[in-house]
Amino acid sequence: MSVRQRAPIRLDATLRCGHGQLLALVGPSGSGKSTLLRMIAGLSRPAAGRIVCSGSVWFDDEAGICLSPQQRRVGHVPQNYGLFPHMSALGNIMAGLHHLPREERRRCAETWLARVHLGAVGERRPAQLSGGEQQRVAIARALARDPAILLLDEPFSAVDRATRERLYLELAELRQQLSIPVVMVTHDLGEALMLADRMTLLADGRTLQSGTPREVMAQPVNEDAARQVGIRNVFDGEIVRHDAAAGLTWLRAGAHTLVCRQRSEFAPGSRVRWVIPDGGVRLRSAVHDNLAQRANRLDVRVRSMLTLGDEAQLAIAMDGIDAPLHTRIPARLVAQLGLAPGTVTTVVLLQDALHLLGGNV
Amino acid sequence: MDWPALWLSLQLGGLTVLLLMPAALFAGRALAYRHFRGKSLVEALLAVPLVLPPTVVGYYLLVGLGGKSLIGQCFERLSGHALAFHFSGLVVASIIVNIPFAVQPIQRGFEAISREVRDAAECCGMSFWRTLLTVELPLAWPGVLTGMVLTFAHTLGEFGVVLMVGGSIPGQTKTVAISIYDRVQAFDFDAAGRMSLLLLLFSVAVLASAAGLARRFGRRYGLPEL
Fold it and tell me: What single-letter DSSP state applies at residue B132?
């Protein structure tokens, strides 16, 4: 899918999802995630672009092709499920099966209800079902039509935490049985990491980055992508040299010299932006010097500390760098490590986690 | 009790509902779902009969449907009689005056159907007519019912427009509201009181039943109240 338009929402996005793959569309509210999903379904028409599914062209502005949702065979599960409130669970599934003879319609709907473990509640209306049951009816209705693609718009946002955990497992299980592309909109990075094969980051209607969730989260292409995947530690630096034999790149940041995976596309002397996720920062142990012999070992000072529940958030000052280094540690370790605002300690920035923005990832 | 006048009012109410509803359904649906330039102006024009004095509306209808107007002349040529001061003219006037009473509740009824439900109907492969008949109308029916009831009850009670366009011809244009007025003019307060009480009880009963049905429907399907 590749779409472009200026109004009503500015879009310039390219998405690709293979058969049997689950693609997570991740972005803040208003980034165009749901609009893209509606465009795939044919519920909204882009100004320009091309949408192709399993070799069949659904939309092509140059060729003048724009299939209706009825012609596209799409399984769409909207955020609040869009169930027909006046029909039973069974009736909802049968509503999508008008292309089948009447007897077959009922049999097919019953089979799908049983597949989502709702065989006993077929005669209940949506208002009589729990949030999780409603979601399962909506998924059964979407899949019963034998769609060419399944679209899930924030499927877990309207249910409580316990139900959500259960539904993650059910979706993961269901996915293994599906050979069609599945596109899921979410703003939860954890969901994307857990369920998706690929992930696309969106901001202001633009595709920022695509890749496996681990790649995107560990190696954001730019500052926008880094902020979106929750990385707060973004700093300036200067490339010092590359060591091809060791596969390393050395850079200077403030008063420190740091090392990371080799990125020879940056010439020595060039200015770069580098990031490190919270989890890439290790603090010195209280009992032994666990950081001895490690690269990127820095003497630092705790600038401020805030305890939130079981977790303490630290802002750490590094010599010659204005912006603080953020990290989180379990709250119980604060006393063990003798940490308080003003404490001088040692940290290591894991070289595999230190990432240079831009260039060829 | 002026039974012929009551019967004429019931006929007028029934015909107005029957003829106005199909157009009101499509107008209400279009206003609920379509966004077009000048939509506010269209909505304002449709609501005009709500705020203008009935005599003003009646005057314009009399001029517009009278023997000197194009519509009046065409109708007279086709049917052999004038629209003004005739039952058919009363029906036309009643339809026009009742447009906001029919369209607005129907529009609200369609608006109450979530976009997700309408999208789901399309993604389920339903055609326009199947969606309208099996999804939209069953869900919008509290609005449709309210529109029908308001139109019927308002027609029964309409006075100014009926008097201006139809006059007070017994058996032809003299409705129950005009008859009450005539009775009062003739100091027959007993008859006027009986007819007024009947109209009052009828209106309250019909409106209360419609509101109760709509609420029960909403609770049953977990829909927001109109």
Answer: I
Q: What ipTM did this prediction achieve?
A: 0.81
Q: What is the predicted pLDDT for the residue at B225?
A: 54
Task: Tell me: pLDDT of B88 over 90.
Answer: no
Q: List the alpha helices (DSSP H) in B69-188.
A: 70-79, 87-97, 99-111, 115-123, 128-131, 137-157, 160-166, 176-185
B149, with CB counted inside 10 A (0-12, 13-18, 19+), is buried
Question: Which of B28, B11, B47 has the alpha carbon at shortest distance from B110?
Answer: B28
Task: Pick from B115, B124, B136, B220 the residue to mutate for testing the A interface (most A CBs within 10 Å).
Answer: B124
DSSP state of A278: G
Name every residue whose Cβ is closer than 8 Å to that of residue A1 and which is 6 or more positions away in sequence: A13, A14, A15, A16, A36, A39, A40, A49, A50, A51, A52
Residue of B nearest to A81 (CA): B116
Q: Is B125 on the interface with A (CB under 8 A)?
A: yes
Could you give the angle at which helices B3-33 and B137-157 cross, rounded to 10 degrees?
A: 140
**Is A84–B120 a contact, with Cβ atoms under 8 angstroms apart?**
yes
Strand partners, A2: A14, A50
Q: Is B114 on the interface with A (CB under 8 A)?
A: yes
User: β-pairing, A56-60 with A48-53?
Assistant: antiparallel
What the block records as the tokens of B137 is 């109308």
Task: State which residues of chain A have pLDDT below 70.
Answer: 285-293, 359-361
Report the residue of chain B nearest A74, measured CA to CA: B123
Say yes or no for a CB contact (<8 Å) between B117 and A99. Answer: no
Task: Look up the pTM and report it.
Answer: 0.83
Among B residues 184-203, those touching chain A with beta carbons less than 8 Å apart: none
Domains recognised in chain B with CATH numbers: 3-34+45-221 (1.10.3720.10)
Q: Determine whether B56 is exposed, middle or buried from the number of CB atoms within 10 Å of its CB (0-12, 13-18, 19+).
A: middle
Backbone angles phi, psi at A334, to 5 degrees: -60, -50
With residue A33 as reference, give the H or E element that holds it.
helix A33-41
Instruction: Find, in chain B, the residue whose alpha carbon is nearest to that of A69.
Output: B123
Q: Do B124 and A95 touch (CB under 8 A)?
A: yes
Q: Is the CB of residue A228 less than 8 Å from the CB of residue A200?
A: no
Q: Please name the residue ranges forming H helices in A57-117.
A: 69-72, 89-94, 102-115
The CA distance from A101 to A87, in Å, is 19
Whether residue A85 and residue B126 make contact (CB cut-off 8 A), yes or no, is no
- As a whole number of angstroms, the distance between CA A239 and CA A252 comes to 6
pLDDT digits (tens, 9 = 90+) for A147-179: 999 999 988 887 788 888 888 888 888 888 888
Closest to B113 measured CA to CA, from B132, B97, B98: B132
Exposure string for A171-187, b = 16+ CB within 10 A, e = fewer: beebbeebebbbbbbbb
Q: Are A160 and A131 in contact (CB under 8 A)?
A: yes
Cα A90 to its chain centre, rounded Å, is 33
